[in-house]
Amino acid sequence: MASNAVIRTGLVGFGLAGRVFHEPFLATNPAFRLEVIATGNPERQEEARARGDYEIVRAPDALLGRDLDLIVLASPPAAHFAQATAALESGAAVVVDKPFAASVAEAEQLIDTAERVGRPLIVFQNRRWDGDFLTAKKLIESGRLGQVFRFESTFERYAGAARDRWHDTATVAQGAGITFDLGSHLVDQALHLFGPATLERAELRVVRPGGPSEDDAFLSLAHVSGVTSHITVSRMAAQTGPRFRVLGTDSAYMVYGLDNQEDALKLGARPTDAGFGVVPEEDWGLVGGEKGAAPTPHPTERGNYAGFYAGVAKTLTTGAPSPVDPREALATMRILELAHQLSA
């Protein structure tokens, strides 16, 4: 594509992912023109119409043959393989939500297909642009913490009893379970910071009675770089731990709470709004604690989910490296799939 060309885009799915994490960024980035949204749900069709002048279709296949430059898949993981294959074969680049397939075998085939047809396959890992993660990354890269030896990453919520929704009714074989859902983000973040790792320990459990997939999990990773990562994800944590605790030989960083971009988007915010992604001082993390010194507040970087689609635009128009390489996402998938095997 020419560097000044508008990226003609179609979106599959208008549930939480499509409505909150994709449409707002495609609609506000002038590099993209979101033309068509596929959803079979009548209520979601009306929501999509209210958002913009989009063509609404019922079936994902209706996006094929339209000469779209990009197809974004915000559909359930079990549908990703067939939909991404068809989109790539049609000549479109593909952005696919995590986990980008329901198995390692499917993920490998998708990468092979993308390479064969010569179209970009980009995995949506927006939490690389969480403000707290950007802060931890900056502190680590600056050397402020010294040599990091342990990285603790926790993403916990309390969902209560299971409900009639995909997350609570789908099986692991369909790409469900909190390990594939939230674990995809946290393992990706750990590998992004510290490089390749092996899975040393996995504890996956179903806490809510009758659930078809796990809702609580702990993973321990041993990175080749020498860092140990402890990953905790849960839908049943009535009290939550720190989002990050990063221990280094010279200092430490700890921060509580979740990045505020998701909640703002759910309330109707747009990424171009003034103050979007800015973290108030009372929510900053703490740095310090070495030699008895009291930890002090450290400013949290501004969250920037828009950075993902800015990277996608550069990839498609200039050939720049993908913001999330599918082989990085494949490495995450290998760890998550092994976690299920070890805990079976």
Automatic annotation (TrEMBL):
Keywords: NAD, Oxidoreductase
GO molecular function annotation: nucleotide binding; oxidoreductase activity
UniProt KW Oxidoreductase keyword: yes
GFO/IDH/MocA-like oxidoreductase domain location: 133-250
Gfo/Idh/MocA-like oxidoreductase N-terminal domain location: 7-123
Family as reported in the entry's similarity comment: Belongs to the Gfo/Idh/MocA family.
Designated name of the protein: Putative dehydrogenase
Organism name: Glaciihabitans tibetensis
